[in-house]
Structure prediction request, 189 residues.
Amino acid sequence: MSAVSSGKGIAAAEAATASGTAFSGGITNPLTKAAVWISERNVGFVVTSIGMAFMLLWAGAFKMTATGAEVIAPLVTHSPLMSWLFKAFGPEVGGAIIGSTEWTAALLYLAGYRWPKAGIVGGIITVGMFFTTSTMLITTPGTTIVVHGIDYMNTLGLFLYKDVIAFGASFYLIGSYGKRAMAAERRSV
Prediction:
């Protein structure tokens, strides 16, 4: 049994990547080399964290407008988890609260590059946020279209489904910022 198939090689690769030591020496397969290069440079983390922050800033700004609040009103009013917000504050203030929450999470993700625990808090916010919006896929009418007797997600369904992916990305970012926070705490000791 090889070291890789037994899991020892994978553990060594993860340990080398986590410690910052180059692990690409001796690897000849171009696909593996590319994967190691991407891992060593944290490309997934950078793209996910910056992409998430950009999306949250852009979407949050839109929801803070009257038009943005109007667009999300059908989603919010059909959500058992969110309908209270528009009932209590009205669509424009409710939209501004949602948008401000998105901006807060985005700024915490960006601040996490300097202070990793801020990124963790941003991740916690977006886990709650994207869990809530993912449930709208079920609670909002008109998210599917029937073609030949089979339900498929329509444009609205696909729009909401991206929040399921963002929900998972939020957990990934919590873990990534958590690793950075642990490394910072070790350096300060």
